[in-house]
Design a protein that fits this description.
Layout (H helix, E strand, L loop, with lengths): L3 E12 L2 E12 L3 E6 L5 H8 L7 E6 L2 E2 L4 H9 L1 E4 L11 H12 L4 H14 L15 H12 L6 E5 L7 H18 L2 E5 L3 H7 L2 E6 L4 E5 L2 H7 L2 H7 L5
Parallel strand pairs: 3-8, 3-9, 6-7, 7-8
Antiparallel strand pairs: 1-2, 1-4, 4-5, 9-10
Helix pairs in contact: 3-4, 3-5, 4-5, 6-7, 8-9
């Protein structure tokens, strides 16, 4: 039986007095691919920022394996070491090669020597299908390859949790489908828990084990469940969102 590894309780997300989302309560199970979905401007990426430690919640709690993330500073640092992140677009340093990009977290958070770091960077790039591209710069590869390199950097420290912000955005359908296959493969082979922000319906249906749907109007969560089930029995607004694929 799968256990919950992230528990969100009565969470409110805000920027100062600007309310983004409120009263969010949900759980993410171990080794799940969990999708945060909803229309534009509903606060998907803001919620992701709270989960990965970049934005303090206005109210509520986030627990990682039972530890209160935002109210235990010492434990928070340990949890952050177990998190890997791919930001929108990959967010690679354009002046560094792919191997040098992967090396950044290894240089900061390990005691490995330069040779060991380079070999590990090569290995991480190979894991995402980029073997042989170590010395390429981001401008010399395709958008889909940059996304893969961004995922490789997120995997550098062997995280238990990986957060992906719009991984398929801007990709053609074939590249997007290949990225979905990679995400499934990495979850199955490495046993990570993956949380993804996306509005790409093909990706949602291809990879999600569970999901939540955030509503921009009511500023709260309207549904949680597998997208295939929500398509059949979720709230009408969620069904309409998920049914765009067949319109």
């Amino acid at each position: 039986m799968q256990v919950s590894v992230i528990d969100v309780k009565n969470l409110t997300v805000a920027y100062g007095t600007k309310l983004i989302q409120q009263k969010l309560t949900f759980s993410v199970k171990e080794k799940d691919i969990f999708i945060i979905m909803g229309g534009s401007g509903c606060g998907k990426s803001s919620l992701l920022r709270v989960l990965m430690g970049l934005l303090k919640p206005a109210e509520g709690q986030v627990f990682y394996q039972g530890t209160d993330f935002w109210n235990n500073e010492k434990a928070q640092q340990n949890i952050l070491r177990s998190i890997g992140v791919m930001f929108q677009g990959g967010a690679l340093w354009t002046s560094r090669t792919l191997a040098e990009n992967i090396a950044i977290p290894l240089q900061q958070f390990t005691t490995l020597n330069n040779k060991q770091i380079y070999e590990l960077a090569r290995y991480k790039l190979a894991q995402v299908g980029l073997s042989g591209f170590e010395e390429y710069y981001p401008s010399e590869i395709s958008g889909g390859m940059r996304k893969r390199a961004g995922i490789a950097r997120a995997l550098a420290l062997d995280p238990s949790f990986v957060f992906l912000d719009e991984p398929s955005a801007g990709l053609d359908p074939v590249s997007s489908a290949r990225l979905d296959e990679l995400i499934l493969q990495l979850r199955d082979s490495l046993g990570m828990t993956i949380v993804i922000v996306t509005h790409e319906l093909a990706s949602i249906f291809a990879v999600a084990d569970n999901s939540i749907w955030l509503d921009a109007q009511t500023k709260t969560m309207l549904a949680q469940g597998n997208p295939h089930e929500l398509l059949k029995s979720g709230p009408l607004v969620v069904q309409k969102f998920l049914n765009r694929e067949s319109e």
